[in-house]
Amino acid sequence: MKINFISTIISITILTVTCVLTSMTAYGQTNELKIRQTLTNYIQGTSYNRPKQIEKAFHQDTHLLLEKKNTPLWRVPVKQYISWFESGEIGEFTGRIGEIINIDIAGNVATAKVEIIFPAKKLRYTDLFLLKKLDENWQIISKTASSEPSINHGKRILFIVSNAHFHGELNKSAGASFSEIVNAYHTFKQAGFTVDFVSPEGGAIPLAYINTSNKLDKQYLYNHDFMYALEHTRTPQQVTPEHYKAVHYIGGSSAMYGVADNKEIQAISMEIYEKHHGIISSVCHGTAGIAHLKMRDGKYLVAGKRISGYPDAYENQSAAYFQQFPFKIQQTIEQRAGVFKYSARNKAHVEVDGRVITGQNYLSSALVAEKIIELLATKIE
User: Fold this and answer.
1) Helix (H) or strand (E) holding 129
2) Cβ–Cβ contacts within 10 Å for residue 165, how many?
3) Cβ–Cβ < 8 Å for 189, 195
4) What is the mean pLDDT of residues 365-370?
5) Which residues have a Cβ under 8 Å from the Cβ of 205 and sit 6 or more positions away?
6) Cα angle at 138 between 134 and 144, to 5 degrees?
7) Is the four-CA dihedral 182, 185, 187, 191 of positive or negative sign?
8) Which alpha helices (DSSP H) does 121-177 contain, by range?
9) What are phi and psi of 377, to 5 degrees?
10) How many beta carbons lie within 10 A of that of residue 363, not counting itself?
11) Which residues, including other chains, have CB under 8 Å from residue 48's CB and lie 6 or more apart?
12) Contact 125, 116 (CB under 8 A)
């Protein structure tokens, strides 16, 4: 009886702790969503001359700490700031493109960073906010900003990543290749692109192959804004396909699970490709993600195209991890009339066939990104 009583107490304790943690997680997510809405009101209000929407974002007593010529600390009442957007036509685009970069919540206060780019003016602003929760609503109570010359043009690339933490039913870790993400991401950012991430479930993704002895890996591993993006990937429902010029399927072992058969991600990719004349790309195991894609006419995307990725011959096919793969990449591509091409191990290899661009391994990641950038600079059909 005593043992049963102790077991019952332990079970109740575990259940209580689980409920508390679940409640805390939900509470944190709710606050973040509310903060995002406040920041979105600011972004959309200032981007489309909507004073009432800007007003929703700020507490009425807020002062903005801005700068102008010969005045490095210019104190602007929020009413004056809002008035700047009252002269234009409501709904008219002001040339500002805004993006939430990160949010950090501490109880009833939070900080946030927003990027504002002006492609026409070749300027980038970094807006820093202090927010406070007042009567269950989050409001901006302070804002400051800095500006710098920028090559950002507002064109967007969508990176597709997996949420899978393990190989199928095995207790063997899987993850997205950090180097493949970083190599391509850096190349796109250097060319002025905005990069977003989407995963089947949204939120944080598992990572693999992080090499802190590699200068670029180390740079991005300790980049708070970049890691925040990987922690807060978008769900398919949060993606608007018409905003993107290309999709890029990231490799790593996790790419074999949950992406290729996700109908929503398939629909996003094919809408970008067929309706908006965008590019579909992949690298290494990321090529698994394009294996099932079908055109409007029912034909497979890969049919008749030169495709690269991680070849079946380079897998350890007797290993337990490989037995968990839902399909073989090369075999599936070839069964669907694709021409699978690759080079020796540890050699870069890229195939460009129309608006489908694929690479063999992490060494090919930057090269695939470069080919995408080159193709987007031309009139693609």
Assistant:
1) strand 123-134
2) 13
3) yes
4) 98
5) 161, 162, 163, 175, 176, 197, 199, 230, 233, 254
6) 110
7) negative
8) none
9) -80, -10
10) 19
11) 90, 91, 92, 93, 94
12) yes
Instruction: State the Cα–Cα distance between residues 160 and 300, nearest whole angstrom.
Output: 19
pLDDT beyond 60 at 22:
no
In Å, how far are 160, 248, 269, 334 from 273, measured between CA atoms? 14, 12, 6, 21
Q: What is the pLDDT of residues 230-243, one digit of tens each?
A: 999 999 999 999 99
What's the chain's average pLDDT? 93
Locate 300 and state its tokens. Answer: 């497979």
Take residue 310 and report the two structure tokens written for it: 């991680």
**Model pTM?**
0.91
Tokens at 27, concatenated: 């509470």
pLDDT digits (tens, 9 = 90+) for 337-351: 999 999 999 999 999
Task: Please report, in angstroms and rounded to a whole number, the separation of the first and last CA atoms in the chain.
Answer: 76
Task: Give the CA distances from residue 333 to residues 44, 117, 232, in Å, rounded to whole numbers and listed in that order.
Answer: 43, 40, 31
Name the token pair of 277. 């004349």
Domains of the chain: 25-149 (3.10.450.50), 156-376 (3.40.50.880)
What H or E segment, with its residue span, contains residue 97? strand 97-106
Question: 3-state SS string over 249-306?
Answer: ECCCHHHHCCCCCCHHHHHHHHHHHHHCCCEEEEEHHHHHHHCCCECCCCCECCCCCE
The rounded distance, in Å, linking the Cα atoms of 99 and 40 is: 9
The sign one gets for the Cα dihedral 321, 323, 324, 326 is: positive
Phi and psi at 55, nearest 5°, equal -60, -35
Per-residue pLDDT, 291: 98
